[in-house]
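Hi W.,

Here's what went into the run:
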Amino acid sequence: MTTDHQQLIVGIGAGARELATEDMILNIGPQHPSTHGVLRLRITLDGERIQTAEPIVGYMHRGAEKLFEVRDFRQIIVLANRHDWLSAFANELGVVLAVERMLGMEVPERAVWARTLLAELNRVLNHLMFLGSYPIEMGAITPIFYAFREREEIQRVMEEISGGRMHYMFNRVGGLKEDLPAGWLGRTRHAVSDVRSRMGDIRNLIAGNEIFHARTRGVGVLSREQILQYGVSGPIARAAGVDFDLRRDEPYLAYGELTVPVVTRKEGDCLARFECLLDQVYVSLDLADACLDRLERLPQGPINQRLPKILKVPEGHTYAWTENPLGINGYYLVSRGEKTPWRLKLRSASYNNIQVLAEILPGNLVADMIAILGSMFFVVGDIDK
Amino acid sequence: MDAVALPGSGLAKGLAVTLRTMTRRSITRQYPDVQPDLPPRSRGVIALFEENCTVCMLCARECPDWCIYIDSHKETLPAEGTARARAHNVLDRFAIDFSLCMYCGICIEVCPFDALFWSPEFEYAEYDINELTHEKDRLREWMWTVPPPPADDPAAELPKEAR
Amino acid sequence: MKCTTEGIAGFGCDPWWLIGGKALVIFVFLVLTVLLSMWVERRVIGRMQLRIGPNRCGPFGLLQGLADGVKLALKEDIVPAGVDKVVFWLAPVVSAVPAFISFIIIPFGPTVSIFGHQTQLQGTDLPVAVLLVLAMSSMGIYGIVLAGWSSMSPYSLLGGLRSSAQMISYEIAMSLSFVAVFMFAGSMSTSQIVAGQQHIWYGVLLLPSFLIYIITMMGESNRIPFDLPEGEGELVGGFHTEYSSLKFAMFFLAEYINLATLSALATTLFLGGWHAPPPITTIWAGANSGWWPVLWFLIKIWAFIFFFIWLRGSLPRVRYDQLMKLGWKVLMPISLGWILLVATIRTASREGLNQTQLLIYGGITIAVVLVGSFAWDLVATSGRQVDPYAEPERATAAEPAQGGFPVPPLDLPHYHGVLPETAARKEVSSGTH
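Here's what came out:
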């Protein structure tokens, strides 16, 4: 922030002083329809071309990490599923995986498979949200309703098992909160196949659209280097050919027993990111089906571990990371043997993904900025924590 | 994507999708006229079965954002015959501030005497945020809306009472 | 002045109450069309989006538009500090008034008898009626530009600038698409043009003109896929970001009236105006007389409005430079070439070439032009991806402190992922999972 741009009053007399043009500083956000909340971008414009862009984050900082330090592990789950409100289940998962690892706890097999299933359904929910909201930023207002119809299908089964529609609060250390309701597996299978059968609508409506291609192809290209430098992860990184997916490369839960096809693209542009997301939905639906198959065959057994009244995690530290829908989510858990963590550092995917904006925005038009911003698939709560 | 597709075929496909959708029934459920069918586990509101509450304060202590307010006093039952007089807690106030509540359900989970329950009831919006603090009378009324828990999956472990 | 009931000369000879009545009817028609098209738009898009759309105000929600209007009127009229008040006030008026005016030259039907007076169902007609429409839509742009300029908001300014550039370039392509019609009709008067389409619609005869008009009319109407001046996702609301209450309603009104005007103009110029669609005329001779033509006219207008709505429900928005490229590099050259071709054919037929030869030569030329332009466009887009708006070379590596933010040089060994894969992952301890 050492550069001092002259703030220019636009309107009457702009540029009248002399013929020389001046750059215009435009604050995109904190209240702007395409920032999904309160992300702020300070953009210097020359005409409609972006000269510099600086993401200014922190408007939604809620001190999640500090709050973790004064909460026991069940209460942490409440907070952890809220920073990225679109992938609540995956966030809970990171915390409980870290705690279980520290405790050396073995999770019942049914719980592992149910978790995997729910994590994949959560991934579908998250991706559908962005598959709907990205076109809306490009002016196509209809796909979001199709996406929400599919979301509703899956949310219905998620609500049936967990009671929640967004913040599931269904993970517990050692398993899940409750067992699956009778008949739930069948209904979930039905929902999964329904969603799969109707995904074609979204694909036909927007993914093949020439205007959409013109807006996104070759726009906002991320290079492999930039991705490695900034720690970009998830579908955004895979869209640029960074073939890295924790589900396959360092399997947690039951992913080791599943074959996880990793969706990648070469181009690294907005279109590739969108297509990655779209294809990942299909992959996740297939994985969900595989989990359902397995859950139906598993023998009778518990879904969680009996926990002591006061759960204390032995002294030590560990780092658990999961492949969240938006990218890599990491929890660095340091415990001093208390019932609260001494420190729980949260590495959220959106935070890293959004930093790269300063790199790829300059040189683009304002309209491209929207296309790029939308294709970075972030949740502001996940950035600001 | 099809590389040799006719120019404009993508647009036409999209237009066909919307046109086809237009002829279908809409999926809207007109809420005040049609009630949503919520599953029994749905976390709508917390109901209090006052008779079961022993004022152990576990829920208030475990609540991550301390939105449960409990007041009580001790009463001593008159001794019957030779028995010692027995003191017990009487609940004066039990209120949940639903403007703070995060709907995590920890209070319900920790309650050792089954006094708190989830109800799928959700129609308790207010115009003033202060009116979202509901006292025990209202919480008791919600008990009537608590559905029986759903049956578990056949593969679930039997509850420990049945083992 | 000698008054007749036929031709342009017939206009202006009606009694004063008839002229006033016509103006009133057109005004009421427009306002009703706006209310109705808003309702239709919301219902149709609702259905396309699996919803129902407004259904609470009045039967089927028909009064929703009225309710919205009342709501807008009752809202606080916010005038931001520092705006140029006069212009800020004037802009919505400048936007709305011309929108009303252009409809006066649209023919609703043939000559009918109203209380014993033989009169044409048209507000008035001029020898240059279509030019009036073009002039009025250009006036409407002033409203948008001035609104963007006077609002003192960067979003509004960008919206206003975009709209001026967009409307001007599309206006040119649009007027070029009219030229072929003028050549065939031999007149710019709308009633003459409609009369010229008694046997075959110009939309069929001059298909390329018609297609170009459809594209330019989408550009003129500021609607998706060309709604860049508003560009909700990017410019918040574009030129009307700072407007509220009735002033906003005026812009809203203008947009929907323009929708109706453009549809009516398309009907008049290309779809035979009030003439009944072909199959009807063959089985029913009386379809083109009396008051029936008003029905055909309305059907055609609503077909166009539905088309607009359908597009809005399905398509994303194009980018500003793509829009400009389409306007100047595709629509204009094709228009010009087409006019040239039409003129050649007209002259040739007057010189005595017969129909078959004409069709053959014409077909060959059209094919060559179209194939050529497509090929050129394909080559131009696929051969070199560089467009004038391509990103300039970025100086990331050379300048570590880019943007003034202290960052370590990017070529430090830590970066670029040059470390072996194992080293990059060694900190991770594999847990129990």
